[in-house]
């Protein structure tokens, strides 16, 4: 079954662009679109999608409020914020509201598709700048959740290099360029890191590494 996606954005050109690209993905189906949070809630109630691509700044009801209401009534629906804002004042409220992903509209098309697929599988993917704000907040407040006790020696040399780049807020594409390896290879190393550290996503890995002081 394809991943059913609802587009929520008040800019028609953004919606049109997303439709044109996502329509080419065989495992993704666009089931509709909405111009604001209130319309999004109505569309979700009609037939819950698997994933909602949610803008933040919209009339009538903004993306943060809409995300809260969607997650409260339909917790199985995954919400990915897709916005132009990467500052802490937007990132943290979105994550607290329950968003499973936070990406900027400048994102590469293939990375957006990866984020949709990851959210569908229950994983979180954040734009590096958004992840940086979250990591900074967690390390400042001391709230990193129940992180497992793992040693950096369980990672290979290359995995440690990749993790260091992740902790610095680098995207897979940037890591590939800096380490002179293929982006697909970076993804393989990221999967290895998460498996060995018993973590769910790269943000948790970055927070854990910073808490441990591995790259300070």
From TrEMBL:
<dbReference type="InterPro" id="IPR001789">
    <property type="entry name" value="Sig_transdc_resp-reg_receiver"/>
</dbReference>
<feature type="domain" description="HTH luxR-type">
    <location>
        <begin position="148"/>
        <end position="213"/>
    </location>
</feature>
<feature type="domain" description="Response regulatory">
    <location>
        <begin position="4"/>
        <end position="120"/>
    </location>
</feature>
<dbReference type="InterPro" id="IPR016032">
    <property type="entry name" value="Sig_transdc_resp-reg_C-effctor"/>
</dbReference>
<dbReference type="InterPro" id="IPR000792">
    <property type="entry name" value="Tscrpt_reg_LuxR_C"/>
</dbReference>
<keyword id="KW-0597">Phosphoprotein</keyword>
<keyword id="KW-0238">DNA-binding</keyword>
<dbReference type="GO" id="GO:0000160">
    <property type="term" value="P:phosphorelay signal transduction system"/>
</dbReference>
<keyword id="KW-0804">Transcription</keyword>
<protein>
    <submittedName>
        <fullName>DNA-binding response regulator</fullName>
    </submittedName>
</protein>
<dbReference type="InterPro" id="IPR039420">
    <property type="entry name" value="WalR-like"/>
</dbReference>
<feature type="modified residue" description="4-aspartylphosphate">
    <location>
        <position position="55"/>
    </location>
</feature>
<dbReference type="GO" id="GO:0006355">
    <property type="term" value="P:regulation of DNA-templated transcription"/>
</dbReference>
<keyword id="KW-0805">Transcription regulation</keyword>
<dbReference type="Pfam" id="PF00072">
    <property type="entry name" value="Response_reg"/>
</dbReference>
<dbReference type="InterPro" id="IPR011006">
    <property type="entry name" value="CheY-like_superfamily"/>
</dbReference>
<dbReference type="Pfam" id="PF00196">
    <property type="entry name" value="GerE"/>
</dbReference>
<dbReference type="GO" id="GO:0003677">
    <property type="term" value="F:DNA binding"/>
</dbReference>
<dbReference type="InterPro" id="IPR058245">
    <property type="entry name" value="NreC/VraR/RcsB-like_REC"/>
</dbReference>
């Amino acid at each position: 079954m394809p991943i059913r996606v609802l587009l929520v954005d008040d800019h028609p050109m953004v919606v049109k662009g997303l439709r044109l690209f996502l329509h080419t993905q065989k495992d993704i189906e666009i089931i509709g679109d909405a111009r604001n949070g209130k319309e999004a809630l109505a569309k979700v109630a009609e037939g819950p999608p698997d994933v909602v691509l949610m803008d933040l700044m919209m009339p009538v009801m903004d993306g943060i409020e809409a995300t809260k209401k969607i997650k409260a009534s339909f917790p199985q629906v995954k919400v990915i914020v897709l916005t132009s804002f990467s500052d802490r004042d937007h990132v943290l409220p979105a994550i607290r509201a329950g968003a499973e992903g936070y990406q900027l509209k400048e994102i590469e098309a293939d990375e957006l598709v990866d984020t949709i697929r990851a959210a569908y599988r229950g994983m979180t993917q954040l734009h590096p700048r958004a992840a940086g704000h979250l990591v900074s907040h967690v390390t400042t407040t001391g709230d990193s959740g129940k992180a497992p006790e793992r040693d950096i020696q369980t990672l290979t040399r290359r995995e440690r290099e990749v993790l260091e780049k992740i902790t610095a807020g680098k995207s897979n594409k940037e890591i590939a360029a800096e380490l002179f390896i293929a982006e697909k290879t970076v993804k393989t190393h990221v999967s290895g890191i998460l498996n060995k550290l018993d973590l769910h996503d790269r943000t948790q890995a970055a927070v854990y590494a910073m808490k441990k002081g591995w790259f300070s």
